[in-house]
Amino acid sequence: MDDTQFDKPLTLGWEEWVSLPDLGLPALKVKIDTGARTSALHAFDIEPFGPAAKPRVRFTVHPVAGRDDIEVSSSAPLLETRDVTSSNGETEHRYVIETVIEVGGKSWPIEVTLTDRSSMASRMLLGRQALRPEILVQPSERFFQPELDYDVYLKNRQPAPKRALRIAVLSRENNYSTRRLVEEGTKRDHVIEVIDTTRCYMAINQSAPEVHYDGKRLPRYDAVIPRIGSSITAYGTAVVRQFETIGTYCVNSSHGIGTSRDKLAAHQVLARNGIGMPATAFASSPKDNGNLINLVGKAPLIVKLLESTQGKGVVLAETQKAADSVISAFRNLKANFLVQHFVKEANGEDIRCLVIGGKVVGSMKRVAAAGEFRSNLHQGGAGEKVRISKAERETAVRAAKALGLNFVGVDLLRGEDGPKVLEVNSSPGLEGIEGVTARNVAAELFAEIEKRVQLRAPRRKPRR
Fold first, then answer.
1. What range defines the domain where residue 404 resides?
2. Fewest CB within a 10 Å sphere: which of 147, 176, 319, 358?
3. Which NCBIfam families does its entry note (predicted)?
4. Which helix (H) or strand (E) holds 113?
């Protein structure tokens, strides 16, 4: 803090307007009481979180007295817990935080305890411990300093606080992507917790829907990053849907994840939105094999399981006879599949575009291994730098938007008549794209999460 700002005394009355910018509270009426030692801020839903070495506390504030429909969510480093005795002799165990207060063009750090002041006329009490020696208090007067306005809450004009978030990563694997999300989120001062999706279970009821884990109710998360494996798509999307019911921001929606995993549904959505893709056909009856093949053109063609991933369950049929055999084999296994035109001009290459928040943040060309038509890195393909065209960029963004996904890998083929969407992956890996592009894609994702979550405060509930 710059002490030169206190080259002149600051005069306060017994009531003043202040700002607590680090908590996202740009306008707050406070009572100044030199008879009280400790400062107190009205808060509820108070919850400590984070590692023991760097504890934090998050809480919600009703900044406008009498307006419980307006809420601001905040968090701050936790200094300690302390027993505080009120003027009526009652002792309460409170969390203590440090934050910056601004009043009359001056600012300084103060310690504040968190407590329920809903029955009090003022949302905050400023005790003598928070008053610097240069501050003069006139207990018979009020509002010596410029008055502020609650309109910043009512019109949602106030800047969102930069606060630590509690974020869950739904993942069953300790792989590169999971580790990078934990590493980058922690670096940005958030608390990242990895949750095994299959160990979650849900209390589904109207009044208090909950998600439980290992015998305990999970805490409130500011955001959830779903990393749902294809083998647990149905259960994983149910867990994400439960978080959505609670009101947690989920990076990818349960509907978007489910649709992207169903190749038939995904292609139907893409077609409905006029997005280019290889000619695709689907049928149920084995009597339709010939007509099915004719719909996508002559061999060679691709036969793809509806829930294939990482190139598994994708077969290249080089002749009509081979195609008929593969289709018959899949039908005998009672498997659902698509038949697609094989884009020869792609020459065993595709483009992976990583889209975050409606923007392509990185792209790479994937080249199939010798003798292989699948360019997936999991199938031995290699990634390399690539410059994508405006049309390719727009196609990737449109595909992500059509499926309602905010963090997605869109795989494109370079066809003679423009880019064609091959696949949309709602749980894209980070290792390949970060290695090839040297971009911090994990940081881009957290920047998007921070923007989305911060924009959700203050929250206004319907008034009763």
1. 345-450
2. 147
3. PRK10446.1 (NF007764), rimK_fam (TIGR00768)
4. strand 106-115
Are 361 and 385 in contact, with CB atoms under 8 Å apart? no
383/445 same-domain check: yes
Band of residue 308 on the pLDDT scale cut at 50, 70, 90? low
Lowest mean pLDDT among 73-82, 113-122, 174-183, 341-350: 341-350
Q: Are residues 35 and 135 in the same domain?
A: yes
Residue reference for tokens 């589904």: 204
111 with 21, same domain: the answer is yes
pLDDT at site 62: 92
DSSP secondary structure code for residue 21 in this structure: G
How far, CA to CA in Å, does 156 sit from each of 18, 25, 26, 220, 383? 18, 12, 11, 23, 45
Question: Residues 219, 224, 230, CA angle at the centre, nearest 5°?
Answer: 120
CATH of the domain at 425: 3.30.470.20
Asked whether residue 253 is domain-assigned, the answer is: yes
Q: Which of these three, 89, 123, 154, is where a domain ends?
A: 154
Query: Checking phi first, is residue 401 left (phi over 0); if not, alpha (psi -120 to 50) or beta?
Result: alpha
Q: How far apart are CA 332 and CA 326, in angstroms?
A: 10
Whether 458 maps to a domain, the answer reads no
Is the pTM of the predicted complex or chain greater than 0.70?
A: yes
Tens digit of each residue's pLDDT (9 = 90 or more) over 333-357: 777 777 888 877 567 788 999 999 9
Q: Of 81-85, 252-256, 388-392, which gets the smallest average pLDDT? A: 81-85
Based on the structure, what is the number of domains in the chain?
A: 4
Pairing between strand 223-226 and 166-170?
parallel
The CA–CA distances, whole Å, from 200 to 21, 104, 175, 203, 279 equal 37, 50, 20, 10, 40
Structure tokens at 461: 């509930």
Q: What is the DSSP string of 180-229?
A: HHHHHHHHTT-EEEEE-GGGEEEE--SS--EEEETTEEPPP-SEEEE---
Burial class (CB within 10 angstroms; exposed 0-12, middle 13-18, buried 19+) of 219: middle
Which of residues 342, 365, 385 is at a domain's end?
342
β-bridge partners, 394: none
Instruction: Tell me, yes or no, whether 250 and 385 share the same domain.
Output: no
* CATH code (residue 69): 2.40.70.10
135-138 and 10-13 strand pairing = parallel
Alpha-carbon separation of residue 401 from 322, 329, 358, 409 (angstroms): 37, 35, 7, 12
Position 159 in a domain? no
* Mean pLDDT to the nearest integer, 132-146: 92
Which residues lie below 8 Å from residue 274, measured CB to CB, with a gap of 6+?
none
Do 21 and 145 lie in a common domain?
yes
Residue 462 lies in a domain: no
Q: Which residue has the tokens 């805490």?
A: 219
CA–CA separation, 254 and 243 (whole Å): 9
